[in-house]
Amino acid sequence: MMRAFLALPLPDAAVVTLERLQQEIPVGRLVPGENLHLTLVFLGDRSVAALEDLHFALEALRVPAFDLRLAGLDCFDRTDPEALHIGVAPCPALEALQARLRATLHGAGVTLDRARFRPHVTLARFNRGLAPEQAARMGRFLAARGDFAVPAFTVRAFCLYESILTKDGPVYEVMAEYPLHLPY
């Protein structure tokens, strides 16, 4: 069994921009630059055979490339945050890609949770229950930098990743890359 997910890799320029921002984050464990990505679908634990079948279904997809802009810092649960993330400016093409992936997975017999798609890139993780002083520091950071944005970039591919859990945190390995198609 392999723990896997489908995600957008980020271009180097976006990673560098986010790593600079991460140096300002006042609390939490920073996500390493090589682990920054935008999850499209979390697959959970799957057999190698199931992932191979899925790979062939994903190779058949024809989806156009599109521009994406990361914007807006936030935590999903402000009362007891687990992570800080940067969101995504409205992007119908991203929503369409994610819906196509879910439909393709369903057609390949993959059962998924019905979780709502909330596109984001996780920048830092917190221990449960931030101390009041830590929460105050994070609040000040969000007030000052909450409107942070990364310049738009063209999404040219999505990837199938394996997530390997280690004592030092997860390691993400690209198992396959699926190019998006540029208009000619």
Characterization of this structure:
With 184 residues, the protein is an alpha+beta fold. It has one domain (2-179): Cyclic Phosphodiesterase, Chain: A (Alpha-Beta Complex), CATH 3.90.1140. The protein is built from 4 helices and 10 strands. It has helices at residues 12-22, 48-59, 92-107, 132-145, and strands at 2-9, 29-30, 37-46, 66-68, 70-74, 83-88, 121-125, 153-155, 157-166, 169-179. It starts with a strand and ends in a 5-residue tail after the last strand. The model has no long low-confidence stretch (mean pLDDT 91).
Question: What's the total count of β strands?
Answer: 10
CATH class categorisation: Alpha Beta
Q: How far apart are the termini?
A: 40 Å
Side-by-side strand order of the widest sheet: 3-1-9-10
Number of domains: 1
Mean pLDDT: 91
Give the percentage of residues in beta strands. Answer: 25-35%
Helix content: 25-40%
| CATH architecture descriptor text | Alpha-Beta Complex
At the third CATH level, what is the topology name?
Cyclic Phosphodiesterase, Chain: A
What overall geometry do the principal axes of the alpha carbons give?
A: globular
Largest sheet: 4 strands, antiparallel
Name the CATH superfamily classification. Answer: Cyclic phosphodiesterase
Radius of gyration from the alpha-carbon trace, in angstroms = 17 Å
